[in-house]
């Protein structure tokens, strides 16, 4: 037996051991896969997903499908074999765990954060839909009053500010602008709603950076003219269904069916003014929607750089920046499925 052969025989078990370890030992990566899509015009647990009290509602026999991503948890133990399979898939993606989960936490922390994001997205979706319908839903509330602030003892957390002086206000910036119209040390009249009652407080302003201030943190909130509730599977979290929820609320409150009986899917965050924002996992959401029979997919403009190569089949992709864009695209497409629509360049 030569020395080279002997060395090979000795090394073979080590090589085999290293291969086994590579296949078995968990690696710090996360897999994104197409998740289920949900018709937000449909039902969950036997009840309409969009429920309205105090306003007439209308049925639409078509579908507005929100899309999701199935993501392995931060505690999932994924071996090399599993990761290679996902990496070679046309519809799955592999990301370093620190990219998918940049913060420290637990699976339960992730679930709770997702639910908080979903609740906020639902409020914004309702606000966007009602604003589109001509309702005034914006209001501004006091989030916190600093202990030594000029407004301490005058304003309280959760006060809804309706006027500064004689000027009606409905955004935090509007409050700041009106307060800064007076000289530091002058007083301002703050009209607020507290515990169902209207009251006016006189606040002597302080000085900060040469301008008048009252020392409160403000937040944008909404006041809806009637009750609207969106109920989804609590396992679904995050803000990315905002656009589709807004479309569903709008469609439910308008007489003419938006979809004309067709299947529309999409994704995107939304704010109360109807602006659509980008999301993650669009390469998985597009094939998930196509698999479930959607014929048109709404792509946030901020995700246009992410859609090349997505498996959309015969499903059309159209770019949207606002709720108005989405409504116009759907109406145009339902009238003529071959109509020209805004795209992300090479998408069809």
TrEMBL record:
Keyword Hydrolase: yes
Pfam families from the UniProt entry: Lon_C, PDZ_2
Keyword list, A-Z: Hydrolase, Protease, Serine protease
Transmembrane segments: none
InterPro entries: Lon_proteolytic, Lon_Prtase, PDZ, PDZ_sf, Ribosomal_Su5_D2-typ_SF, Ribsml_uS5_D2-typ_fold_subgr
UniProt-listed Enzyme Commission number(s): 3.4.21.53
Active site (catalytic residues): 240, 285
Enzyme class, spelled out: hydrolase
Stretches assigned to the Lon proteolytic domain: 236-333
Catalytic activity entry: Hydrolysis of proteins in presence of ATP
GO molecular function (one): serine-type endopeptidase activity
Gene3D superfamilies membership: 3.30.230.10
GO process annotations (BP): protein catabolic process; proteolysis
Family, as annotated: Belongs to the peptidase S16 family.
Record-given protein name: endopeptidase La
Organism this protein belongs to: Nocardioides albus
